[in-house]
Amino acid sequence: SSRCGQRLCLCGRCANSQSRALAMVAFDTEEQLLNADLNADIDDKPVTFTEALGNTALRNVILQNVQLADALNPTIREKLGVHVVGMVLSLCAGAANAIAFAKFKLYVSHVSGSSTAIGLRLEEEQPGDVPTPVELVLYFIVGSWIAGLIIPGNTMKMGQARYEVVLFLVAAMELVCWWHELRYPEMLAAAMGLQNAMITSWSGAVLRTTHMTGTATDLGSALGRMISRFFRRGCSLASYTDQDWDENTVDRQKFVLMNCLLYSFIGGGIVGAAGYGALGLHSLLIPAGLTGALGAMHLAYCMKEATSLATEKAAEEMFARQLSG
Length: 325
Known about the structure:
- 69% of the residues lie in helices and 1% in strands.
- It is built from twelve helices and two strands, in the order H-H-H-H-H-H-H-H-E-E-H-H-H-H.
- It has helices spanning 17-33, 49-52, 56-72, 76-104, 112-122, 131-150, 163-179, 185-198, 213-232, 242-279, 285-304, 306-323, and strands spanning 201-202, 205-206.
- Strands 1-2 form a two-stranded antiparallel ribbon.
- The chain is globular, with a radius of gyration of 23 Å.
């Protein structure tokens, strides 16, 4: 590459297509820095990319472009993997939540209902004891904490984190609850917190698989932006700029993914309710089995793609060192 030897190397050894796209954004931004007077503190002196991040306006522009590049450059395998994993986990969470409600009349896959129940029960506006919803909230947080100990980052990167460990733990917690005849709803709450914290973002989209409030919000806002963009351009696709098309692609991808998660969660609720009616306590084996199967699939993927995953990780580490200047 003609740019090899500069502060950011973009040769073919350095990264996959997504990393190269991010590197291009970073390099072009740095190149502009070297020729522009950003503020009085720079005094026309060349600065490194890391030093340039001290400028708030520039940092915001870089962040916006990096997020856009990240959303526009997922591989087909990565996109398919995220959709499949997200849909299966949402279905499992919906099923576990329905089973818990059928058994305990409590929701375990989110903390909003339990938090409200604490206040209602303190004021005796809802029957039941106060410690139970408190425990559900605390155990959900504990599950999320365990995920944070195992998964180093928020963004899902297939094969780059021990997702199978988290998935096996979620399945194990559900099996423990099943073994004890569903006597411990807090164990299911911990499993849901663990699952929900495993993947919190992908390609610029916030991912939640155990509750759908944020999912429905992102779905609606993405649709609103697409419609607003269409009207701003005079209801003519021909008047779209390249930037418009890029942003529209990101919003469309988010809209599709959020729909997949939402309908999978609803489907999981149906599966859980029907399963509890037909199988009783054993219905919990459905989400536990599916979650364990996902863990086994990820482990097999890591073993099969070990060489390419190691190369990709090394390229990202090299890129990080180059950025740090």
